[in-house]
Design goal:
Blueprint (H helix, E strand, L loop, with lengths): L1 H13 L4 H6 L15 H12 L13 H4 L4 E4 L8 H6 L8 H23 L7 H26 L20 H16 L18 H15 L2 H14 L22 E5 L14 H5 L9 E4 L1 H6 L5 H6 E3 L19 E3 L22 E5 H14 L3 H16 L14 H15 L6 H7 L3 H12 L19 H6 L11
Antiparallel strand pairs: 1-3, 2-6, 4-5
Family: Belongs to the SusD family.
Keywords: Cell outer membrane, Membrane, Signal
InterPro entries: SusD-like_N, SusD_RagB_dom, TPR-like_helical_dom_sf
């Protein structure tokens, strides 16, 4: 595992232009791409370089941005001007020069370019065919992963499937065509990648068959194709490859890295030899009075969303003077709301030997079984499989009880609309502050309604400016439009 992490760093710094160089300018010439691929080792380097953008995936990880964009969190930070571009996200006033909108675009296309290099160049290498096919499947999984983030945030985007292509040279393709490529890639990957149980000890950070199937289900869910979503999510359930971690808070500790519930995660391993590669997730959301930057402050609205006695509330947020799991007395610093995200809290036992939170070895969990069960419940309810929906929903609630049968009673409603509301409610509290809330509201076509209601309830600028038909997407970065010399066209309203 450590070796896999180190290869990622080496591959990204030697085989290709650096990430910073790539983000600042068009690639002017990779290091002899044609001649750089001749051995199995070259193929592995190319693959891990394609994974590399996930480490501190700019615009996607570390800040719970998509809780800040919704009703779950305020920006936080060390004051109003700290990360000021987050204010545009928090208050639905995004502009085409927004830093986050630019970062996620560039980071995603960096990952796509590297995945395309794997897909295009590895077939010509003389190596073990099984190993080759697995690498190609991972390359296609990664391309689908990055494109899914792009199409979800921007809608129509350039469809780049060749290593030498640069996105600024292409017009935007319809999101339907992009989804077609994503589905083709994930379907291919699901037929070749190994099950999680069959991974070797040093391979646990790599994509699996279950991850590909789980993302297929998620993609169909986001497309609104509930029938296909139910089929693919049920495949993962029926595989028995994953199960819920018995104690909810344990999901978010280092002891659960690559645990039974984890479907896909980003692996962080601190190594003094590579101390420039940092894990900023806990640092960004840590309290300013303890060890962090203080971003993503949970709202009172989120806190009030938990049912009476739900243990997940205490595992999701903490307030001043709470006693943390490691015995530390909490200090929330200058939190805007009086709360901080407990899931991002770094236990004293988890602190790296350097004493610097940015060297944390805590993985970033992107997809877990608790999410999948609730997405399956939603899809099953939509296609009339009421009992299957109830089973998946109640499995999550039973785990959340922590053995106390006097709380969180089983949901028994069978009316489709009432059950849908119960599932939506469970989704909010089960994976609160895990960077998903904004996407749920958008795909469920209720973002404007929910956000404007929040604004009225709290007399807040959050949600006040949400414009239906516009704020469901991010703007295309103006810098990219300029580089394209007008080939890229802007989203409506920006």
């Amino acid at each position: 595992m450590k070796r896999f992490h180190q290869i990622i760093i080496l591959a990204s710094s030697t085989l290709f232009l650096s990430c910073g160089d790539f983000l600042d300018k068009q690639p002017l010439g990779e290091m002899s791409v044609e001649s750089a691929f001749s051995t199995a080792n070259d193929a592995n380097k190319a693959l891990v370089a394609a994974y590399n953008p996930m480490l501190n995936y700019n615009g996607m990880s570390g800040y719970s941005i998509y809780d800040i964009a919704a009703d779950n969190a305020e920006k936080g930070g060390e004051g109003p001007s700290d990360g000021g571009y987050f204010n545009e996200i928090a208050y639905s006033t995004l502009t085409s020069s927004n830093t986050i909108a630019s970062q996620v675009w560039k980071s995603s296309f960096l990952g796509i370019r590297r995945a395309n290099i794997v897909i295009e160049k590895v077939p010509q290498i003389a190596m073990d065919d099984n190993a080759k096919q697995r690498i190609l499947a991972e390359g296609r999984f990664l391309r689908a992963f990055y494109y899914f983030n792009l199409v979800t945030l921007y809608g129509d985007v350039p469809l780049i499937d060749k290593a030498e292509q640069v996105e600024q040279n292409f017009e935007r393709s319809s999101k339907e065509l992009v989804y077609d490529l994503i589905i083709q890639d994930l379907t291919f990957a699901s037929g070749i990648l190994p099950e999680k149980a069959n991974l070797a000890a040093g391979e646990k950070a790599r994509a699996t068959k279950g991850a590909a199937e789980a993302y297929l289900g998620k993609v169909y869910l986001y497309k609104g194709d509930f029938a296909q979503a139910e089929i693919w999510l049920k495949k993962v359930i029926d595989s028995k490859a994953y199960s819920l971690t018995p104690k909810y808070y344990d999901i978010f500790s280092t002891e659960s890295d690559f645990g039974r519930e984890n479907i896909f995660e980003v692996n962080y391993v601190y190594d003094a030899q590579f101390n420039n590669t940092t894990n900023l997730n806990q640092l960004r959301q840590g309290s300013t009075a303890m060890y962090g930057y203080g971003f993503a402050n949970p709202t009172q609205d989120l806190v009030d969303a938990f049912e009476p006695g739900d243990p997940r509330k205490g595992h999701t947020v903490y307030k001043q003077n709470d006693i943390m799991p490691d015995g530390v007395t909490a200090d929330v610093g200058i939190s805007e709301t009086g709360y901080m995200n407990k899931k991002a809290y770094l236990l004293e036992s988890e602190f790296p030997v350097t004493g610097d939170a940015r060297h944390s070895g805590k993985n970033e969990l992107l997809y877990r079984y608790g999410m999948l069960l609730l997405w399956h419940a939603e899809a099953a309810n939509e296609v009339g499989k009421t009992q299957d929906a109830l089973k998946s929903l109640n499995e999550v609630r039973v785990r959340a009880r922590e053995g106390n049968n006097n709380i969180l009673p089983l949901v028994t409603v069978t009316n489709k609309e009432d059950l849908k509301k119960a599932i939506w409610q469970e989704q909010r509290v089960e994976y609160a502050m895990e960077n998903i809330r904004y996407f749920d509201l958008i795909r469920q076509k209720r973002a404007g309604l929910v956000m404007r209601a929040y604004s009225l309830k709290y007399n807040s600028n959050k949600g006040k400016n949400f414009r239906d038909g516009i704020n469901e997407l991010f703007p295309i970065p103006q810098s990219e439009i300029d580089i394209s010399q007008g080939k890229l066209k802007q989203n409506t309203g920006f």
